[in-house]
Amino acid sequence: MPYAKTQIQSHIAAARRLDKIIIEVFKYLKAHRKCSEYEVQQFILARFEHYNLETDKDRTPIVAFGKNTADIHHYPAKKSSKRLKPDSLIMIDIWARMDKEGAVFSDITWMAYNGKKVPAEIMKVFNLVLEARDSALEYAKNNLKNGKMPDGRGTDLAARDIIARDGHAKRFLHTTGHSLGLNHPHGACKGIRTDNRRPLKTDTPYTIEPGVYLKNKFGVRSEINFYIAPDFRLKITTKRQRKLILLG
Q: Taking a C-beta distance cutoff of 8 angstroms, is the pair 98, 10 a contact?
């Protein structure tokens, strides 16, 4: 079933707070150049509490520096987490919901670079991932303009085909997106994936999060949230990263 209007509003409220926290995380990184992944993770959890947000109890925010960005789900541990070094790629993946009954999660991923000049290979993959993300969005929008609900498979392939074009098909290691839930960031609806030929559902927030992961080198992911209103309008509920954040 679609979420109620108040639940959609709770998702939007959480999304706006996560957008603020991402900005705060990058300010923290600029001010703490030798911090660890774990320390950044703990900073994020403190900001969740400040903004009256809660996350799921099974996992903690993903904070990855350097080669750890190639790990899709890098949950840093206190003793083994990497410290930030110059010329390092950074991945921040955070998800939370408002701390109230029936609230819906938001889930976003942003990337930054601790340096002034980004290596060409990283920049190329980053731009490729953004293109794939936006291709999935455009596919969904074009279907809606024609009075047709986009399906999970078509939306997934719109992103996946862009990444395959540049020879990274086998390095896109997860689905393009998932619905957002109440007790967990992954909702009950089948997501944006090649085995889902069913139409997406209205008033149900989803993620779009293509990624490319080069083993023992680096990984890139960009994640936004959206939902489709009953009148077939696509609503993007989170900020869309357009440039790699440079910490300088």
A: yes
Report the pLDDT averaged over residues 30-56.
Answer: 97
Outline where DSSP puts E strands in the chain. Answer: 53-54, 62-65, 88-98, 106-114, 206-208, 211-214, 218-221, 224-228, 234-236, 245-246
Burial (0-12, 13-18, 19+ Cβ within 10 Å), 195: exposed
Q: For position 155, which CATH number holds?
A: 3.90.230.10
The pTM of the whole model exceeds 0.85: yes
Question: Is the pLDDT assigned to residue 59 strictly greater than 90?
Answer: no
Mean pLDDT on 90-111: 98
Mean pLDDT, rounded, for 80-109: 97
pLDDT for the residue 94: 98
What residues make up the domain containing 142? 5-246
* Long-range Cβ contacts of 117-126 (<8 Å, 24+ apart): 118/244, 118/246, 119/87, 122/89, 122/218, 122/220, 122/244, 123/244, 124/166, 125/168, 125/212, 125/214, 125/218, 125/220, 126/220, 126/244
Indicate the number of domains in the chain. 1
Among the listed residues 183, 170, 185, the one whose alpha carbon sits nearest the alpha carbon of residue 215: 170
Is the predicted pLDDT of residue 248 greater than 90, yes or no? no
| 136 close to 209: Cβ distance less than 8 angstroms | no
For residue 2, count other CB atoms closer than 10 A to its CB. 14
